[in-house]
Prior knowledge:
Blueprint: H1 7-23, H2 30-37, H3 41-54, E1 58-62, E2 72-75, E3 82-88, E4 92-99, E5 104-111, H4 118-135, E6 149-156, E7 160-161, E8 166-167, H5 181-189, E9 193-197, H6 198-209, E10 217-222, E11 226-232, E12 235-237, H7 269-272, H8 274-283, H9 291-299, H10 303-327, E13 331-335, H11 342-355, H12 358-361, E14 365-368, H13 375-388
Parallel strand pairs: 3-6, 6-9, 10-13, 13-14
Antiparallel strand pairs: 1-2, 3-4, 4-5, 7-8, 10-11, 11-12
Helix pairs in contact: 1-3, 2-3, 4-5, 6-13, 8-9, 9-10, 10-11
Amino acid sequence: MAQPPRPRVAAARLEREILVLVSSGRARSRKEIAESLGIAPSTVSQRVQAMLTSGELEETGEGASSGGRRPRSLRVPGSTGYLGVVDVGGTHARLGVLRHGGELAATTEVALAIADGPEPVLVQVTAALRELAGSVGGGSGGPDDGGRLLGAGISLPGPVDVARRALDSPSRMPGWSGFDVGSWLEDALGVPAVVENDANAMAVGEHFGHARRTHHSVAVKAGSAIGAGILVDDRLYRGAGGAAGDITHTRIPAGGDTPCTCGNRGCLETVASGAALVRLLREQGYDVEATADVIDLVRDAEPVATTLTRTAGRHLGAALCTVVNFFNPGAVYLGGALSTLEPFVSAIRSQIYEGAHPLMTRDLVIAPSALGADANLVGVGRLLEDALVPHTLLGTPTEGPR
């Protein structure tokens, strides 16, 4: 039978949860903290007082009264309590340091080769993350830096087993399948870590990043490959096996017998992704190596590249018609490199409005990314915040944010 955590460990865990709640704005008073965590107000008061004494929290002004004396409002002073977040792509990674509540304090990018394997890539991004965190507030960002980094999150371009915090049979990522990315990050940085699929991270970031809010949304990331994430009632929907939203390997007639990276043939990825456009242009004699080359050609109004890109958008839009008709989301958000191209986006819109039932499109929002390159960072940061506050009673055994 699992033993409850030792008192000092339990107290440290509770203080971390309080810090996340206060700094994210989800709780501003002792009463709100107790209600959020479902624990006794006396226990909260004891820990809050200890955190006030240590300087981790401070009281400022007065909060709203619900009867009786008005409570003092709590806040996190200075630069305490950042989250380190990383979005790994095939040839580069984008890194950020987030204040609680989703505000990016700093970002940077580093070149890498994901095919080098997990350890070389993770060594590189953790070193860069420490350096970036150190630039915000003047510390080193490491585990001995006063606990300033409270957690780390990473999004990866492949199917993620969230419970094991590892990739499950990803394409074009030798050595990554089954590697415990979460434990590696925790050992390297000395803080709790979460691991998420890049499309899911983008979906969470975009869902909460648009001014006009909906409770149900689909976000599609169209770059070298295609991924999608789904939110239902403001919560990420993973499906029974954790693979919900993987539309890229839906077989479509236009794919014919073209081999796909998944081992099947005729998947959506073979005709609607950046990699597909690179292949199609090379077959016609164009000197292109990556999706960025395709984007440059389309922005220069090169006719063949533009036509192929518009056709790719129609294929993706046709696949999304099925999603819209079945799921009836309030919004479809379009991210990834190809979503910056108007011919691609226009073709998606026209296919959805032409092919989906009018009841499904009457109030449907189809919008480009509101956060751009930062969507994944903000999304994985929000998932990390949720993991850092498990909303369990003090003393209930946990194994960290998995």
